[in-house]
């Protein structure tokens, strides 16, 4: 029997003048799902408020595929970074755009990239919520929107179905997070590899990474990170990790944070959680065995970690992933 399933409809809203880098990221990352799986998972359209060509911050225009009417049927709405009136003029936004976004928020997942958060805030969608934006605009954002709980240090933030990202490459992290939520970590990792980017940077990771790439392999903490990834089920002490890189514990800890934006413990816990999610998605292993292999020791510890980080349990997460997998669009079963 042939079963037709509808692709997840994503509408990317470009409020002019739009940031072209941000505008390109949803299409680049989300279309990667079809490349790595052969399944057309997303139906993506780019629109402007009036359907006309929109200027960009780079000096050229983009031709949209529609206008605000497209938001009515959207499953996800992504607002690209913008130097729109919401950024400059005390939070003002063209009323039709604000109303269309508020209406879409009643039924769709809402996402902003970089300064797209100004547009969401001007539409009233971030009031009382936790959100983030590009660190360089944090002070201006707080002045314009004091009722938003701004976390200017995070790469991306999710609060009750509304997701916001910091600037630049953080938009890639957020779009990979969307793929991970929709299709699981295995697909998201393959899309990341296709795009030659990090498979996962946790949303809570700091925007401010002083040295993302070590100048000299001999002074990098990369060997220690490789050691931890290869042996997630083992205990790793700071002394052992520092010795792996021929550094003092103090130097190792400082350099680790410079290179990753996280402490060694925070980075290891995130890697373990990512591996646990993969095992829950890809295997039928009992929860206790997943916990052991991921390095959490017991199912109880894994449940505590998942409750704190993901607000769910291993069993609920596994069931939810299986439900999403069954709902993946396909033209033929």
Report on the structure:
This protein has 333 residues and is of the alpha/beta class. The chain folds into three domains: 8-194, Rossmann fold (3-Layer(aba) Sandwich); 217-260; 266-326, Arc Repressor Mutant, subunit A, CATH 1.10.10. 45% of the residues lie in helices and 11% in strands. It contains 15 helices and ten strands. It has a six-stranded mixed sheet, sandwiched between helices. Strands 3-4 form a two-stranded antiparallel sheet. Helix 6 (138-144) links the parallel strand 7 (130-131) and strand 8. Helix 7 runs antiparallel to helix 8, helix 10 (238-244) packs across helix 11 and helix 12 (264-282) runs antiparallel to helix 13 (287-294). The termini are close together. 43% of the residues are buried.
Short description:
The protein is an alpha/beta fold and 333 residues long.
Described by the principal axes of the CA atoms, the overall outline is globular
* Strand adjacency order, main sheet: 2-1-5-6-10-9
Work out the helicity level.
Answer: 40-55%
Low-confidence stretches: 208-217, 329-333
Query: Which series of helices and strands comes N to C?
Result: EHHEEEEHHEHEHEEEHHHHHHHHH
Count the DSSP helices: 15
By secondary-structure content and strand pairing, the structural class works out as alpha/beta
Query: What is the CATH domain class of the largest domain?
Result: Alpha Beta
Please give the largest β-sheet.
Answer: 6 strands, mixed
| Name of the CATH architecture of the largest domain | 3-Layer(aba) Sandwich
**CATH-derived topology of the largest domain:** Rossmann fold
CA(first)-CA(last) distance: 7 Å
Strand percent estimate: 5-15%
What average pLDDT do the residues reach?
85
- Compute the number of strand runs: 10
CATH-wise, what's the superfamily of the largest domain?
Class I glutamine amidotransferase (GATase) domain
From the alpha carbons, calculate the radius of gyration and give it in angstroms.
21 Å
Give the number of domains.
3
């Amino acid at each position: 029997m042939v079963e037709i399933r509808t692709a997840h409809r994503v509408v990317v809203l470009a409020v002019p003048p739009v940031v072209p880098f941000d505008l390109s990221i949803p299409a680049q990352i989300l279309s990667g799902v079809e490349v790595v799986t052969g399944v057309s998972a997303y139906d993506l359209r780019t629109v402007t408020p009036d359907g006309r060509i929109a200027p960009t911050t780079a000096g050229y225009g983009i031709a949209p595929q529609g206008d605000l009417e497209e938001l009515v049927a959207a499953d996800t709405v992504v607002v690209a970074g913008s130097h729109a009136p919401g950024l400059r003029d005390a939070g003002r936004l063209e009323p039709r755009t604000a109303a269309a976004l508020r209406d879409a928020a009643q039924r769709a997942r809402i996402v902003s990239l970089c300064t797209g958060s100004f547009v969401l805030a001007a539409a009233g969608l971030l009031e009382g919520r936790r959100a983030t934006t590009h660190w360089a605009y944090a002070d201006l954002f707080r002045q314009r929107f004091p009722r938003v709980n701004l976390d200017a240090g995070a790469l991306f933030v999710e609060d009750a179905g509304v997701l916001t990202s910091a600037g630049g490459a953080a938009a890639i992290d957020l779009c990979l997070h969307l793929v991970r939520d929709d299709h699981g970590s295995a697909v998201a990792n393959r899309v990341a590899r296709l795009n030659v980017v990090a498979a996962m940077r946790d949303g809570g990771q700091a925007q401010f990474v002083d040295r993302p790439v070590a100048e000299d392999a001999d002074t990098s903490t990369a060997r220690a990170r490789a050691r931890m990834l290869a042996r997630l089920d083992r205990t790793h002490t700071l002394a052992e990790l520092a010795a792996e890189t021929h550094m003092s514990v103090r130097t190792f800890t400082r350099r680790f944070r410079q290179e990753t934006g996280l402490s060694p413990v925070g980075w290891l816990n995130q890697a373990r959680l990512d591996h646990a999610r993969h095992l829950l998605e890809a295997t039928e292993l009992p929860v206790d065995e997943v916990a052991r292999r991921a390095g959490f020791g017991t199912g109880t510890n894994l449940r505590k970690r998942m409750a704190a980080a993901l607000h769910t349990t291993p069993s609920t997460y596994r069931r939810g992933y299986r439900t999403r997998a069954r709902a993946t669009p396909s033209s033929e079963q």
